[in-house]
Amino acid sequence: MKKTLILVSALFATLALALFAMTLSGMSAPTKAAADTDATVIEVHAQDQAFAPNTLSAPANTAFTIHLYNDDTFDNEHDIRVMDSTKATLAKTPNTCLGPCELFLQVPALAPGTYTFFCITHDDMSGTLNVS
After folding, report:
1. Which of 21, 25, 98, 103 is deepest in the core (most CB within 10 A)?
2. How far apart are CA 85 and CA 38, in angstroms?
3. For 57-115, how does the pLDDT look when each residue is reduced to its tens digit (9 = 90+)?
4. pTM (two decimals)
5. Which 3 state secondary structure label does DSSP give 1?
6. Burial category of 78 from C-beta neighbours within 10 Å (exposed 0-12, middle 13-18, buried 19 and up)
7. Distance, C-alpha 26 to centroid of its chain
8. Where are the beta strands (DSSP E) in 10-112?
9. Are the CB atoms for 61 and 108 separated by under 8 Å?
């Protein structure tokens, strides 16, 4: 019994140390933000160098997630990024993906306004994000 208690204590100490090290290194523990039922998730599809729909709506002053479905079946690469009127990128997926695939974009809380979302690999692939 005493050996089991010592082993369990050592396991918890190791876990706590690992989480502390992740915090110091800037890493974060995995989250399930995309699956959170209280979070706003907006779906958009990418196919044939176009977004559908090409106009999205999101709540103001609240972080949200854009779930991108790359519906292409012939290795067409897509990502999704959000920029403001000055063309500053406010959020972007960490990578592109070859279709078919899915990406999740975590967008920070935005002020009310009109923003643009686009694909970095296709200059003419963009849409409008209305935040209100």
Report:
1. 103
2. 29
3. 999 999 999 999 999 998 899 999 999 999 999 999 999 999 999 999 999 999 999 99
4. 0.71
5. coil
6. buried
7. 18
8. 40-47, 50-52, 55-58, 64-70, 77-78, 81-83, 89-92, 97-98, 101-107
9. no
